Every structure is written in structure tokens, then in C-alpha cells.
Amino acid sequence: MTDTQQLLKGYSDFHQRYFRDEPKLYERLHRDGQSPKVLVVACSDSRADPALITGAQPGDIFVVRNVANIVPCFTSKVHSVGSALEYGVKHLKVQHILVLGHSACGGIKALLHDEVKDSDCIDGWIAHAAPAKDRALKKCPIDSAQECCERENIILSIENLLSYPWVNDRVAAGTLQVHGWHFNIADGILYQYNPVTGKFE
């Protein structure tokens, strides 16, 4: 079976489950629209699907994915992350924003080791995470800084979230919470960022 045939088989299973066996969920989502409580900023990496990791059902999470789960600061306004944040916060009125990073992230590896060559788009994009690299290299030598940089990038993205005025206002009002998670692909362990201790626990 080819890769696309496998995807079509998966679609067939999906259609059977949600439109034949249990049609009420999509009937409701079609009728009432979406009302997710959580917006997830995740990496595009095929090994770190936020819906799969969390067991989310259709309609549960509003997701934006990009290389290295980066949230640029508000001054870089014209990008898909900002538009998704604005829609999720202002229109869907999500109650949580979750930045989900993961181990062995290729974007972070490229950032750390300046691996991107002749790039039209990637180099400029991961440059948004340069402060995370600087922080990580103050804590770890470059040959062991991968995980540290992945986690610093999550923290940086949380900080950048608060540069969006309508995110910051809602966090200050207590109607929106931001979270950082780091998923370890090797052992499946999920670590949550604790802003009190400054650690992933």
C-alpha cells in the first residue's frame, strides 16, 4: 500500500466512525460551529501531533503548527501564527493557549548549529527563536544544548504571547491562561513548564 493509499484508508476509517457510526458530533459541529477552549501552537514535526498526543476529539483544540512551534513577538504582525492567535482569542474566546514543543526538533537543531543553507524561508523563520539559542548556550555547551534550547524556545514563545495586547489583557483579567509543554519523543513523557520554579516538571 502506498503512502497516499494508507491516508485514504485512514480517511475511510475516519468517515465510517464520525459520519456513519457516530454522526452526532459532526452534526453538532456543523450546526453550531466550533467552540474549542484550547489553542495549541505546535511544531509541524510529523512525530508530535497535538491531537494524537492529547487524545483530543474533533472540535476540542484550535491548532496552529509551524517549524519549531515558534510564536514571534507582536511586532512581527503579518504571519499565520498571529492571525491564528487573534482568531482564537478574540473570536473563539479560547481559555488556554498551549505551546507544545518536543525533543529532537529539527528546527531547533538547525538554529543551534546554523545548518540551514540556501534557505528562502526557513532561516528567517527560525531566527525568531534566536534569543532561545542565546539563553541555552549560556546554560549548556552547544553539543548538549538541544533539549535546553527546545525548552527555552517554549518559554520564549510564552513570553512573546504576552506581547500581543489582547492576549496580555485577557491573561491579566484571568480569562486566559498560557502553558508550555515539552514532549519527549523517545519515551513519550510530557513535561509541563512551571513558571514558579522556571522548570519543566
Detailed description of the structure:
- This protein has 201 residues and is of the alpha/beta class.
- The chain is 46% helix and 16% strand.
- It folds into two domains: 1-32, no CATH class; 34-200, Carbonic anhydrase (Beta-carbonic Anhydrase, Chain A).
- It is built from nine helices and six strands.
- Strand 5 (190-194) and strand 6 (199-200) form a beta hairpin.
- Helix 7 crosses helix 8 (146-161).
Q: CATH superfamily of the largest domain, called what?
A: Carbonic anhydrase
- Low-pLDDT segments: none
- Oligomeric state of the chains in view: single chain
Number of strands: 6
Profile the largest sheet: 6 strands, mixed
**Regarding CATH, which class of the largest domain?**
Alpha Beta
Secondary structure: helix percent: 40-55%
Mean pLDDT across every amino acid position: 95
Q: Sketch the topology as an H/E string, one letter per element.
A: HHEHEHEHHHHHEEE
> What is the CATH architecture annotation of the largest domain?
3-Layer(aba) Sandwich
Rg calc: 18 Å
Structural domains: how many = 2
Q: How big a fraction of the residues is strand? A: 15-25%
The shape, in one word, is globular
The rounded distance between the terminal residues' Cα atoms is 41 Å
Number of helices: 9
CATH topology of the largest domain: Beta-carbonic Anhydrase, Chain A
Instruction: Specify the structural class.
Output: alpha/beta
